[in-house]
Amino acid sequence: MDSSVHFEANASSRGSRTRAVALAPRTRLLLLLALVIAAGPLVIPNAYFYDVAILVAFNAIVCVGLNLLIGHAGQISLGHAGFFALGGYGTALLTARYGVPPLAALAGAIAAVALLAFVVGRPILKLKGHYLAMATLGLGIIVSIVLATEDRITGGPDGMQVPALTLAGFAVQGERAWYWIAGGALLATVFVVSNLIDSPTGRALRALHTSEVAAEVTGIDTARHKLLAFVVSASLAALAGALVAFYSGFVTPAKASFLHSIELVTMVVFGGMASTAGAIVGAAVLTVLPQVLTVLKDYEMVAFGALLMATMIFMPRGIVPTLAALFSRRT
Amino acid sequence: MGVTDIARLALRGAGIALAFSAAAAFAQEPIRIGAFLSVTGPAAFLGDPEQKTLEMYVERLNAAGGVAGRKLALTVYDDAGDAEKARTFTKRLIEQDKVDVIVGGSTTGTTMAAVPLVEQAQVPFISLAGAVVIVEPAKKWVFKTPHTDRMACEKIFTDVKARQLTKVALISGTGGFDKSMRGECVKVAPKYGVEIVADETYGAADTDMTAQLTKIRGTPSVQAVLNAGFGQGPAIVTRNYRQLGITAPLYQSHGVASKEYVKLSGDAAEGVRLPAAALLVADILPDADPQKKVVVAYKSEYETKYRSDVSTFGGHAYDGLMLAVEAVRRAGGTDKAKVRDALEATRGYVGTGGVVNMTADDHMGLDLTAFQMLEVRKGNWVVIR
Amino acid sequence: MDAQWVQFVAGGLTVGSIYALVGLGFSIVFNASRVINFAQGEFVMIGGMSAVSLLIAGWPMPLAIGGAIVVATIVGLLLAKVAIERARRADVVTLIIITIGASILLRGVAQLVWDKSVHRLPPLSGDAPLQLFGATIVPQSLWVLGATVAIVAALTWFFRRTRLGKAMLATSHNKLAAELVGIDVKRVLLASFGLAAALGAVAGVLIAPIAFTSYDTGIMLGLKGFAAAILGGLGSFPGAIAGGLALGLLEGAGAGYVSSAYKDVIAFVVILAVLFLRPDGLFGALRGERV
Description:
Strand order of the largest sheet of chain C: 1-2
Largest sheet of chain C: 2 strands, antiparallel
Number of strands of chain B: 14
Distance between the termini of chain C: 54 Å
Oligomer: heterotrimer
Helix content of chain B: 40-55%
CATH architecture of chain C: Orthogonal Bundle
Low-confidence stretches of chain B: none
Radius of gyration of chain B: 22 Å
C-alpha cells in the first residue's frame, strides 16, 4: 500500500539503469522538521529565543490541525481559540483544583475538548461558508465570555495559575527542556496529520472540499469526515493550549478571544492552505514577526498590517505553495 | 534551508549585533531600565501615558547628567494588554536586553504573568498595576506604585458611610480591573456597614448601559451606586445614569480619575465622586501639602511636552521610575540584590501617588491618606474633606 | 417592571441601528465581491475620528461630518483599488485575510494620525433626554434611528432606480452574467467599497455622541455588524437591518431580563439557534446548490 519509500525505476533517458530512491513528501517534511529542531540549540543564543521557538512550535501544532480543517476539508473555523483555551483551562482546573497528575490532566482536558467538538460539530458543520464562520466565531466568543465571567471557577478575566508539568516525578523547568517537549509534540502532530492526509480519509476530505455533492455521490459520508477533521483539529488546539498553560504557568480568557482565533486562521492562510509545511511556516513567521517589528514602536501595527496585506496580495496561495511553485518552475 | 532557519539565523544575528552595540557603549555601563506596557489595546488608557512619562523622564535625567554618573537606557515593549506577550517580553528584557530593573506591567494580568519570571531571575520589578494580589502576599522582588483597588473601595465606602448611606448598587465591566475592584468592594463592604443590593455588569466595548441601570433604578432600596470601571464604559454609564434620571449619588473608581472622563461625560458627571491621587488636583492643593511641589512639576512638564492632560497612570510610572533611580543611587550601583534592598528601605519618598514608606511586608507603601476624595463640579475637581 | 421593557427596547433599538448600518456595509461589499470585509468596522472608526479632528480644526459641524464621510469613502475606494481589485482572482479566504490586514493597517495608521484617547462628538440636537412611552432616550438616538430609516429608503431607491445601483444588484445576482451584458464589474467593486465606507462613516458620526469613538472602536462594531449581516442573511439589505435591530434588542432584553453578564452569550446562542433552523439567515434566499 502506501509505504514511505518507493523505488522509481528508470528515471534516466539513456537506457542505463538508474534507480532513484524517492521519499514521500510527508517523510521529507518530518525529516526536515526533525533536523531543524535538532539544529535549534546550535543557533539559539539565550532563553528568550528558546521561548519564541517554543511558542512557534505550539502555534504550529494548532495551525497544522486547523489546516486540516480549512485547507484540506475546506471548512472554516473562526473560533478555534476557544478549543485552545479550553484545553488550557481544563488542564489548569484538573491539576490546580482537583490535584490530578499533570499528564492525566492533559489527556483529560484534550478528551473533554474532543467530546465537546464532537457534540457541537455535528449541527454546526451543516452550515456552510460564511455562516459556518459566524457560527464558529459565536462559539469562540461564548467560550471566552463564560471563562471570563465564571470567576469562582476560572479566576475571572485575569485567569488562574497552572502548576508545573511533572514527568516521572520531576518538574519540567527551563526553556531547554520545554524546547524538546514542544519540538517532540510538533513532530508527533505532523506525523499524525500527514498520515491522515495521505490516507483514504485525507483523500475523502479533499474530495468533499472540491464538491460536497460529488463526494456524497461517490459514497463518501461527508458529514462524518467533516466532523473528523473538526474533532482532530479541535483536539490538537486543545493539546497546544494545555502545553502552553503548563509552560507559561497561567491561563487567561484572552486565549479564547476572537482576535486569537483570527490570528490562527491568518497563520494558516498566510503560510499556505492545504500545506502542512505552510501551516508551520505561517505559525513561525507570524509568531516571530511581532517580536521583530517591536523595534518599530509606534509603527508596528502599520508595518504588520501592510506586510500581511502585501504578502497575501502578491502570494495569494500563501508563502509555501507560492515558493514551491516558483522553485518547481525552475527545475 | 527553510524559512524558519533563515528567521532563526536572522534572530541570532540581531542578538549578536545588539551585544556588540552594547559592548561599544562600554565606556560607562548604562543603567538599563526595562518596561513592558500596554501601549495599545484595551488598556492603552494606562500604557500610553506610562510610556510617554518613562521616555520623557529618562531623557530629562540623562540630560541632567544621568544617575551617579551613568546614563539611563530605557527599553520599552508594547504587550497590547496580552498576558502571554507580557511574559515573552519580560523574558526578553531579562535574557536578551539584560536590564537591571523593570518598571512596567500596566495591568494586573500582564503583571502577574511576569511575576514568576522576575522572582526566578531575581530582578527588581516595580509594577504599575492596581490589584492588591500583586503585593499581597509580598513577593521578594515585586513592588508596586499605584494604590490598590481595595484602598479605592475603602476610600469610597468611608465616604458612603460619612453620608450615612448603607445600601449600594454595584455596576462594573468585564475587564480584569473592574472584576478585581468589584471583588474587593464586595469583600470590604461589611466593614463599613455597607450592603450590596444589586450587582450588574456590562461589556468593555458596550455602547449602552440603560438596561442594567434601569434594573438598578428599579431596585427599591438603592441609596448609592458604585461603578467599579475603567476605560470608556464609566462615561457611558454616567450619561445613561442622568438620562434615566437616577438621583442617587454615583461613585466612580480611580480608574477614570482623568479629565478625559469628565469631558466624555459632560454635564452628567456633575456631582460624581471618586478617589484619586493628589496629581489630579495639583493646582488647588494647599502649598503646605508635601506632594504639591512634585505633582505641580510633573503636571506642567507632562502637559507642556505632550499637550494633553496629565493622568494618574502616567504619575504611577513617574513614581516607579524615580523609586528605581533612587534605589540605584542608594545602593551605589546596579547590583540587583542591593537595589531590591534599597527599594524595600524606601521611606518618605514623595511622589505623585502619595508619600511612600515601604517595608518588608508592604511593597507598595501607601496608605489611605494618599487618596483624595474628589467630586466633579462644573467640569472641575473639588476636594471633599 | 412594566415600563422597564420599553426602556430595554429603546436602548436595544439604538445600538441595533448601529449594528444594522455596519451590517449593511458588510452585505453591500459581499454582494459585489463575495468578500467579507473585516475592515468595515474601521470605516466607522474613520468616520467618527475624522469628524472629531475636523471639528477640532475649526470646521463647522455639517462640514466636519461631510468631510469625515468623504475621508472614509476615499479610504474605502483605495482599499478596493489597491488591494481587493489586485487580488480578485484569489481564494475567498485569502481575500478575507487581506481585509484583516487592512483593518490592522488602518488601526495602526489611526493611532499615528490621531491618538489612542477616546473622543466624543457633540450631539446633533442636544443632550436633554426625552420621555417617550415611559422610556427616556437622548435625541441622538432618534437621529440614529431616523438616519437608518432614511438610508434604507435611499438605498432602495438607489438600487432600483439608478444605473449604478442596478448594475451593483445585477453583479450580486450573477457576476458572469453581469459582465456579459457589459457591466463594468471593476467599477461596481469600487462603488461597493466606497458606498460601504460612506455608510460606515455615517454610522460612526451618528454614534460618536452616544458611544464615543477611538482608534479601536472598529473591532467590536465590525464583529457585531458581521453578526447582524449573517443573522439577517448575508447579502440581503432588509436582512442586515432586521439582523442588526434583532441583535440590539436581544442584547437589551438579555441584559434586562436574564443576566447582564451573559447578554452577549444570549445573543450569540440565539444567532446560532437561528442559523441551525435557517442556515442562510433570516432573509437569506434558500439557495439551491450548484452541483
